[in-house]
Design a protein that fits this description.
The chain has helices at residues 8-28, 37-48, 54-66, 70-91, 108-111, 114-134, 142-156, 161-171, 178-201, 209-236, 239-242, 248-251, 257-261, 263-280, 289-300, and strands at 101-102, 105-106. It has 303 residues and is mostly helical. A two-stranded antiparallel ribbon has the order 1-2.
């Protein structure tokens, strides 16, 4: 499956993954006309808008690398995207990042109101765990499902994504060093990316510990490289391309990789992390080429 991030084959595969998870998202989200309508409309608005679906893509790519039928990981892909959507709703609130634009559209609290946005995020978080416990196509092994729920709960909470956001907010206007910045993003962005790959791997009948360790090392590297590239794009891209206000990090006086080590060093850092990700999964054969391409895509993407 050797391909380049700019190849037609890769774009078609991403479209296939995105369409697949979009169908499952539409299935699991409450109907817009179901009481309370405004809450369900806000949930659907925030989840079903255009997005790269990076986390579901990683779930499906990991399943492909391990020979797992995609149907078995649909519930995982859906749950992690819903967790991601809930985090964006809350991150955009005035009490946090105070963003008005997300994916080229008004943020949830601007489209609806702040109270509805908070409740939409709360309801989406709960829905993700409901899916993991109820999707009939996922692994029938209770112990494996429990492990998945445990991973998602741990890495989306205070020791993962939510904790990273807390560190981010506490760092605004302060000078921090590179190690502190990496710690923040290992939690804020990297933890959920790592969870995607771990949960997909748990869908196998019996995961090889060596393979699991290799995939986890890969996940850690791409989780950080994704954020480095995000910081770069916030500097060099325009608002229309980004789908959110350009330069928002600088405006909020947030520490970023370019602000701490410079733009060129940040580009070098992203490429170094990509090479380390490739080294982590060098023991896999061609079945993992999609993971290799995704790592390259992360550091070459333009939005």
């Amino acid at each position: 499956m050797k391909m380049k991030p700019d190849s037609e084959a890769f774009r078609l595969l991403l479209d296939e993954y995105k369409q697949r998870v979009d169908e499952r998202l539409d299935f699991w989200l409450p109907a817009a006309n179901l009481i309370p309508e405004s809450l369900h409309q806000a949930m659907r608005y925030s989840v079903l808008g255009s997005g790269k679906r990076v986390r579901p893509v990683l779930v499906y790519a990991t399943a492909t690398a391990l020979g797992i039928p995609l149907q078995r990981v649909d519930g995982i892909a859906t749950a992690v995207e819903i967790i991601h959507a809930y985090s964006l709703i809350h991150d955009d609130l005035p009490a946090m990042d105070d963003d008005d634009l997300r994916r080229g559209r008004p943020t949830c609290h601007k489209k609806f109101d702040e109270a509805t946005a908070i409740l939409a995020g709360d309801a989406l978080q709960a829905l993700a765990f409901y899916i993991l416990s109820h999707d009939p196509d996922m692994t029938p092994q209770p112990a494996q499902r429990l492990q998945m729920i445990e991973r998602l709960a741990l890495y989306s909470g205070s020791r993962g994504m939510a904790g990273g956001q807390a560190i981010d907010l506490a760092s605004v206007g302060k000078q921090i060093n590179l190690a502190e910045l990496e710690t923040m993003h290992i939690h804020k962005t990297g933890a959920l990316i790592r969870t995607c790959i771990q949960m997909a791997a748990l869908s196998t009948e019996q995961i090889d510990p060596v393979q699991m360790d290799a995939l986890d090392r890969y996940a850690k590297k791409i989780g950080l490289s994704f954020q480095v590239q995000d910081d770069i794009l916030d500097v060099i891209c325009d608002t229309d391309t980004l789908g959110k206000p350009q330069g928002s990090d600088a405006l909020l006086d947030k520490p970023t990789f370019p602000s701490i080590i410079g733009l060129q060093a940040s580009r070098d850092k992203a490429r170094e992390l990509h090479q380390q990700a490739l080294q982590a999964i060098e023991g896999f054969g061609s079945e993992a080429d999609i993971l290799r391409t995704i790592s390259q895509w992360f550091v070459e993407r333009s939005h």
